[in-house]
Amino acid sequence: MSSRPPSPGAPLRIGTRGSPLAMAQAREVQRRLMAAHNLPEAAFALTAIRTTGDAVQDRPLSEIGGKGLFTKELEQALFDGRIDIAVHSMKDVATVLPDGLSMIAHLPRADSRDAFISARYATFDDLPEGATVGTSSLRRRAQALARRPDLKIIEFRGNVQTRMRKLEEGVATATFLAVAGLKRLGSAVEGVPIPTDVMLPAVAQGAIGVETRADDEGAIRLVAPLDDAETTLLLTAERAFLRALDGSCRTPLAGLAELTGDKLRFRGEILRPDGAHRHATAREGAPEEAEAMGLDAAAELRAAGGPGFFDA
Ligand SMILES: NCc1[nH]cc(CCC(=O)O)c1CC(=O)O
């Protein structure tokens, strides 16, 4: 491992994807670091890194495939010593980190729900028979079809602005985006949050993680105070579920943990891509059982789906 600690007094280099959402998230991490340590803005340098997921705009993400589409290049930059910390949407992070890297902090989770966005209809259930919905997410596609097999789902990629233009041009009647992303972008488009019993969010949706080299004590000391223990707990359950199902972005699945008082609730589901089959389950337990709940839920759904459920 070629970690090159920055010289004393050099700014901490914050690596991020260059998309507007990623930059907004990196600036949030920077603001929190400044506040936590009473440091000036100049103590940090934002470094945008282009990832495969950003570079390939003309093909469905599920087709490019593989894990780490939005994270691999950031992690390589950490290994190479070009950046000191990497800021991720935890939704995009593989369940097993490369040796030598650690996820040191999760910021307090924002709204984990999906938003329904349409100029003409108030909610998903208001969509008329046969309406066209744009999404690039296998999960949202499968969930939409499971609830409304009559809908026509078309591939929709690009940033929020691009998608809104496509809606205006009538390419589709509605689309979905994460509420958290819209809020962080300060988007004029608000969308309507979809109840989680209508559309269960992606594992870790709305959560931001900060990763460092595992041996970079300086960076770890700076980043550790940013960790929100509740968010880390929720992600422990959700990411155990994802790991046990070996979920990649090719697999339509959803999982959400919630903490009420000292009671942890987990819900998970797996779907066939066409929405024709869906298996769902729920658990309640103590916070200490977070990981076991996720693993156990995954085992139940894997058995319910049977062999080949995740085959194309
Ligand atoms: N896969 C892209 C991605 N990764 C994280 C978010 C939203 C922000 C979040 O979930 O924290 C998005 C966009 C979206 O799904 O609308």
Q: Care to give the gist of this entry?
A:
The chain is of the alpha/beta class and 312 residues long. The protein has helices at residues 20-37, 52-55, 61-64, 72-79, 138-147, 160-168, 179-184, 217-223, 229-244, 290-305, and strands spanning 12-17, 44-49, 85-89, 101-106, 114-117, 132-134, 152-154, 174-178, 192-193, 208-213, 253-260, 263-271, 278-285.
Can you describe what's shown?
Monomer. Residues 12-218 form the Porphobilinogen deaminase N-terminal domain. The protein has 312 residues and is α/β, with parallel strands linked by helices. It folds into three domains: 12-107 and 207-227, Periplasmic binding protein-like II (D-Maltodextrin-Binding Protein, domain 2); 114-193, D-Maltodextrin-Binding Protein, domain 2 (3-Layer(aba) Sandwich); 237-303, Porphobilinogen deaminase, C-terminal domain (Double Stranded RNA Binding Domain). It contains ten helices and 13 strands. It has helices at 20-37, 52-55, 61-64, 72-79, 138-147, 160-168, 179-184, 217-223, 229-244, 290-305; strands at residues 12-17, 44-49, 85-89, 101-106, 114-117, 132-134, 152-154, 174-178, 192-193, 208-213, 253-260, 263-271, 278-285. The strands form three sheets. A five-stranded mixed β-sheet has the order 2-1-3-10-4, sandwiched between helices. A five-stranded mixed β-sheet has the order 7-6-8-5-9, with helices on both faces. A three-stranded antiparallel β-sheet has the order 11-12-13. The protein is globular, with a radius of gyration of 20 Å. It starts with 11 loop residues before the first strand and ends in a 7-residue tail after the last helix. The model has no long low-confidence stretch (mean pLDDT 92). The site of the ligand NCc1[nH]cc(CCC(=O)O)c1CC(=O)O has 9 residues, from strand 8 and helix 7.
